Amino acid sequence: MRSPRRCSRNGCPRQAVATLTYVYNDSTAVVGPLAAFAEPHTYDLCEPHARSLTAPRGWELVRHDGDFAPPPPTTDDLVALADAVREAARPAPPPRPEEHDNLPGHQTGRRGHLRVIPPSH
Known about the structure:
Shape: elongated
Oligomer: single chain
Protein backbone atom coordinates (compact mmCIF):
# COMPACT_ATOMS: atom_id res chain seq x y z
CA MET A 1 0.00 0.00 0.00
CA ARG A 2 1.25 3.45 -0.85
CA SER A 3 1.94 5.49 2.26
CA PRO A 4 1.29 9.23 2.46
CA ARG A 5 4.20 11.47 1.59
CA ARG A 6 6.40 12.17 4.58
CA CYS A 7 8.39 15.22 5.57
CA SER A 8 11.76 15.36 3.80
CA ARG A 9 13.61 16.47 6.94
CA ASN A 10 15.87 13.72 8.30
CA GLY A 11 14.21 11.72 11.06
CA CYS A 12 10.84 13.47 10.80
CA PRO A 13 7.99 10.93 10.65
CA ARG A 14 5.19 13.47 10.12
CA GLN A 15 2.99 13.66 7.04
CA ALA A 16 3.94 16.32 4.49
CA VAL A 17 1.52 19.22 4.01
CA ALA A 18 3.74 21.72 2.17
CA THR A 19 6.30 21.79 -0.64
CA LEU A 20 9.53 23.76 -0.59
CA THR A 21 10.95 24.88 -3.92
CA TYR A 22 14.13 26.88 -4.50
CA VAL A 23 14.16 29.37 -7.38
CA TYR A 24 17.91 29.71 -7.79
CA ASN A 25 17.82 32.45 -10.46
CA ASP A 26 15.88 34.73 -8.09
CA SER A 27 17.54 33.55 -4.83
CA THR A 28 14.08 32.73 -3.51
CA ALA A 29 12.74 29.85 -1.42
CA VAL A 30 9.00 29.22 -1.82
CA VAL A 31 6.96 27.24 0.73
CA GLY A 32 3.46 26.52 -0.53
CA PRO A 33 0.71 23.91 -0.26
CA LEU A 34 1.72 20.33 -0.97
CA ALA A 35 2.29 19.77 -4.68
CA ALA A 36 0.04 17.20 -6.34
CA PHE A 37 3.06 15.03 -7.18
CA ALA A 38 6.51 14.65 -5.65
CA GLU A 39 8.95 16.36 -8.01
CA PRO A 40 12.73 16.17 -8.16
CA HIS A 41 14.45 19.20 -6.60
CA THR A 42 11.51 19.98 -4.30
CA TYR A 43 11.11 19.04 -0.65
CA ASP A 44 7.95 17.93 1.12
CA LEU A 45 7.60 19.39 4.62
CA CYS A 46 5.33 18.82 7.61
CA GLU A 47 3.59 21.87 9.07
CA PRO A 48 6.09 22.57 11.88
CA HIS A 49 9.03 22.45 9.47
CA ALA A 50 7.17 24.50 6.83
CA ARG A 51 6.39 27.20 9.42
CA SER A 52 9.87 27.33 10.96
CA LEU A 53 11.92 27.21 7.75
CA THR A 54 14.38 30.05 7.19
CA ALA A 55 15.97 30.99 3.88
CA PRO A 56 19.72 31.06 3.31
CA ARG A 57 21.43 34.40 3.94
CA GLY A 58 20.74 36.77 1.07
CA TRP A 59 17.70 34.82 -0.11
CA GLU A 60 14.05 35.82 0.03
CA LEU A 61 11.50 33.49 1.59
CA VAL A 62 7.97 33.37 0.22
CA ARG A 63 5.64 31.40 2.48
CA HIS A 64 1.98 30.46 2.05
CA ASP A 65 -0.04 32.42 4.64
CA GLY A 66 -3.02 30.08 4.88
CA ASP A 67 -3.40 26.81 6.70
CA PHE A 68 -1.55 23.76 5.46
CA ALA A 69 -4.08 20.95 5.17
CA PRO A 70 -3.22 17.30 4.59
CA PRO A 71 -4.01 16.22 1.05
CA PRO A 72 -7.30 14.38 0.50
CA PRO A 73 -7.06 10.67 -0.30
CA THR A 74 -6.61 9.92 -3.97
CA THR A 75 -8.19 7.07 -5.88
CA ASP A 76 -4.76 5.39 -5.77
CA ASP A 77 -4.93 5.48 -1.97
CA LEU A 78 -8.44 3.99 -1.99
CA VAL A 79 -7.44 1.23 -4.42
CA ALA A 80 -4.37 0.42 -2.31
CA LEU A 81 -6.54 0.28 0.82
CA ALA A 82 -9.04 -2.05 -0.87
CA ASP A 83 -6.17 -4.30 -2.02
CA ALA A 84 -4.76 -4.42 1.51
CA VAL A 85 -8.17 -5.39 2.95
CA ARG A 86 -8.56 -8.14 0.35
CA GLU A 87 -5.07 -9.44 1.13
CA ALA A 88 -5.77 -9.47 4.88
CA ALA A 89 -9.05 -11.36 4.35
CA ARG A 90 -7.43 -14.05 2.21
CA PRO A 91 -7.18 -17.34 4.18
CA ALA A 92 -3.70 -18.42 5.16
CA PRO A 93 -2.27 -21.23 3.03
CA PRO A 94 -1.97 -24.62 4.73
CA PRO A 95 1.50 -25.37 6.10
CA ARG A 96 3.85 -26.99 3.66
CA PRO A 97 4.75 -30.63 4.38
CA GLU A 98 8.36 -29.70 5.11
CA GLU A 99 7.23 -27.35 7.90
CA HIS A 100 5.07 -30.06 9.52
CA ASP A 101 7.92 -32.59 9.41
CA ASN A 102 10.11 -30.34 11.54
CA LEU A 103 7.68 -29.95 14.45
CA PRO A 104 9.12 -31.36 17.71
CA GLY A 105 7.69 -34.72 18.77
CA HIS A 106 6.23 -35.46 15.34
CA GLN A 107 7.87 -38.08 13.24
CA THR A 108 6.26 -38.86 9.98
CA GLY A 109 6.78 -41.43 7.34
CA ARG A 110 5.93 -41.18 3.67
CA ARG A 111 4.37 -43.76 1.46
CA GLY A 112 3.82 -42.32 -1.96
CA HIS A 113 1.46 -39.41 -1.64
CA LEU A 114 0.18 -40.54 1.79
CA ARG A 115 1.68 -39.61 5.11
CA VAL A 116 1.73 -41.84 8.22
CA ILE A 117 1.57 -39.92 11.49
CA PRO A 118 1.91 -41.92 14.69
CA PRO A 119 -0.93 -41.45 17.21
CA SER A 120 -0.26 -38.99 20.03
CA HIS A 121 -0.14 -40.40 23.54
